[in-house]
Amino acid sequence: xxxxxxxxxxxxxxxxxxxxxxxxxxxxxxxxxxxxxxxxxxxxxxxxxxxxxxxxxxxxxxxxxxxxxxxxxxxxxxxxxxxxxxxxxxxxxxxxxxxxxxxxxxxxxxxxxxxxxxxxxxxxxxxxxxxxxxxxxxxxxxxxxxxxxxxxxxxxxxxxxxxxxxxxxxxxxxxxxxxxxxxxxxxxxxxxxxxxxxxxxxxxxxxxxxxxxxxxxxxxxxxxxxxxxxxxxxxxxxxxxxxxxxxxxxxxxxxxxxxxxxxxxxxxxxxxxxxxxxxxxxxxxxxxxxxxxxxxxxxxxxxxxxxxxxxxxxxxxxxxxxxxxxxxxxxxxxxxxxxxxxxxxxxxxxxxxxxxxxxxxxxxxxxxxxxxxxxxxxxxxxxxxxx
Length: 387
What we know:
Elements: H1 5-24, E1 28-47, E2 50-55, E3 68-78, E4 81-92, E5 97-98, E6 108-115, E7 118-126, H2 128-134, H3 151-154, E8 157-168, E9 171-178, E10 191-200, E11 203-213, E12 219-231, E13 234-245, H4 270-275, H5 278-281, E14 284-296, E15 301-314, E16 317-331, E17 336-349, E18 375-386
Antiparallel strand pairs: 1-2, 1-3, 1-18, 3-4, 4-5, 4-6, 6-7, 7-8, 8-9, 9-10, 10-11, 11-12, 12-13, 13-14, 14-15, 15-16, 16-17, 17-18
Pfam family, one: Porin_4
Keywords: Cell outer membrane, Ion transport, Membrane, Porin, Signal, Transmembrane, Transmembrane beta strand, Transport
GO cellular component, one term: pore complex
């Protein structure tokens, strides 16, 4: 039987391509993923006269997780090397809006390479200090301001960030640098972070150093130590961080967001500095402690409780904030759970009375506003689904 020349060429090419495909042409994949956490919320002291407020969702956030969807993908480049990317959007379930200042991929947006050398990622990423805290936090750092306000010291994300990570057995190392982007001022508006971790035999340990400079190269520095230990049905959590900020540190970063690093001065936004500027004029130190535990009654029912404490001291200011929260969580499946939760916030010292208006609030997705009171109680009944 005779075959036309084009058919022979096509067949030969097909055999050749099939023979080299496993090695010369990389395997790749793209995955759509997400989390939706919605809650009915009741909150006390929501006006100067007291009173309660009911809402479908407090500031668009549930209690356990920030809602999101994203794309992640990887490509096998051969020789043990892979390329990967993450594009992650934050959203508010109550109204369908964007979170993170309205950015399309405000949670994460980076591309990277991994191999025997470790992993290098470039783009918008979580801060090294936040990752160190979240690895040993009962909620991996929660969603609303009632249970996640350590992010106001660590910052949440850095733009223009380069991150290197490498594991040596149970030991992990990381180094992160966020470029400032100011012509002729290499270190201004930049951030540097580095740390170590251990993960083995049910024990997780983290340690991190971080420094951020504003447009005038004034610094905000912090260090973190944390631990998590799983023992039978129980897991215990503890972390401590200390932050020191130069006098006059510009929390608004000259009008250019550090990628939520403006949160480094609890509380701090461009609007709040005008109202309580004396709090930010002096050098200050924050000491932050979290203690918590989770107990699994069975494979589907668990209880988590935690206490968070922050002490702020400066030449012109001194005060504390405390939060205690409790969660009962029931898993309907591997991807869906329902929960009830409660959180109690309390401030004293010079923090007392500072929270009378929306401009003097704990910033964040939920914006805790004490409306001139020293305490507030928030209750949640929520549903979370992962896909």
